[in-house]
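Milestone M4 deliverable, item 7.
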Amino acid sequence: MEPTKKTIKNMQSYSDRESKVHFRALQLVKDNSRVLSAGCGPGREMKKLIEKNCDAVGIDIRDAMINESKKIAPNGKYILGSILEYQISDRERERERFDYILCLWNTINRFKKEDKKKFIKISYDNLKDNGILIITTKHKFSSFRIFLKSFQNKFENIYYYNPKEIKEWFEKTGFKYKIIKEDLGNLLIIAEKRKKEI
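Output delivered:
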């Protein structure tokens, strides 16, 4: 089911209150970078990335969200589909890899539990060496969970995590990561791709 205009408006209102940590994440992205926004939503980060002269690619499973993003960031590139199925062809892999992959606005909370590590692996495979994966999420005990639960009928089940559980996502992945605790129960995760030890 596609989200209604009211749902999109509510998401944007929530985003205004939540924007601090997410836009801080965007500040980590260097100008002129190649960036993939996983779950680009209504396009706020796509707009910021275009302003930074980035080669920005947004992917989202909802056509309504892609359409909203195109309105405010028409110069972005868009893919309708799931990041969990995203794949670069072997022929184009070196040219098409990303400097950054972003998963902001608590998008990862809507992945099924078993899909977290799959997403981390896909991110690793599609980043350049020393590329950066940036995730924002909610702490398991955040009071803002109540707000996010209001969307539970519109989206997949929503899951919440603490730093110990997040550590499990990155085990034996080749990422070096750190978790920064932000205000309003937000967690900012910054992971750098390193070559896996053989």
